[in-house]
Amino acid sequence: MPDRAWEQHARAVERLASSYEAIPKGQPVRLAKQTTNLFRARTASTAPGLDVSGLAGVIEVVARPDEGPPIAEVQGMCTYEDLVDATLPHGLMPKVVPQLRTITLGGAVTGLGIESTSFRNGLPHESVLEMDVFTGAGEVVTTRPGDDLFDAFPNSYGSLGYATRLRIELEPVPSYVALRHLRFDDAGLMAKTVEEITRSQEHDGEPVHGLDGVAFAPGEYYLTLARWTDDPQGPAGERPSDYTGQQVFYRSLQERQTDLLTTYDYLWRWDTDWFWCSGAFGAQHPVVRRLWPARLRRSDVYMRLLKLDRRFAIADRLDRRAGRPLRERVVQDIEVPVDRLPEFLDWFDAEIGMRPVWLCPLVAGRDWTAYPLEAGATYVNVGFWGTVHVGPDAVHAPRNRAIEAKVHELGGHKSLYSDAFYDPDTFDRLYNGPALAAVKRRYDPDDRLTTLYDKAVRSR
User: pTM of whole model > 0.90?
Assistant: First the structure.
């Protein structure tokens, strides 16, 4: 079976290369895919896209290699849902599994995925051992850590090419995950606890394998400590909970101190309700939830509904009818140093006022060209996704611009999967534009691929 999978992969790469040749020069080179987890619009194009059919699977899982850790050979368009389905039967998981099922491995590596294991394993690209990148020159380049293309690839969002194959390191995982929800009234104490757990990877004498949290309101903060276990009973004798039915996971943080999930359900605990965003579609209302098929309570379905709302301006029409001010969409993930987290949360409460927000600590293991986090330092990702009633100025994105300014004032960074508003000089300073451009010139000499600035800010 592995030999056949490799043969199929080779044929898929050949189709990709052929589709590249069919794109007229001067036309943008893009993936021919219908789904996305990006929250920024892009300029429409009638040019054919790159054919990535056949590049969405797991080639091979090597659970017991002759030397080194267990690995998986994975195609770039493989979703984490399919990747987890292939690794869990071996008692293994990717070192970082982003929150949403349909995020692809290639997308997470080029676009900076994150999850609760990031405080000890970094971001998804840090467990990549080798990858093949289809470049703007129409060539497949095999690259490894330390190579200029490899080190510049994270946060490049396709401006340097597209990963067709990735060899990733896996880690053992048992059948269950025991959870402890710790409440904090003081953001400073919560930040210190994050720093202590990140340093020791334990709390109160118990190991911590996963760490994230939620800020529900000023003075109401929760950290969720996850511990891998083979025990089918939780810390208080619980049986595994099921948050794919009537119960909603994020509400459980406020309702209970301990919990138990199967490993599979833990990995997708946020996907069923798109964190808490499913509430915008009524999916958390008890009556609606009973009628809404469980197989359709997932993030990609909500994304399709959101696109319909944008296409027909449903929310804006309802607001106008009700006399409410125009909304500004505020959908962002940012990172700030852990000691600046309380300051950011206080500012966010006063200036933006959106709740709840997600908190996810991370530590970068080394320097990366286009997303210059300080290696070894603890940051906290703050994720917030919704709208704010602003009024006529909403079209100028004042809240998003203020967030950008505040984050970088605090020594942080902003992910680029959503709207960005930087001028070119600021963007180059924050995301190491000259170094990224040098790598692009080497692997895309004819400038076939859209630059990162054009993708992230100009939405091209």
Answer: yes
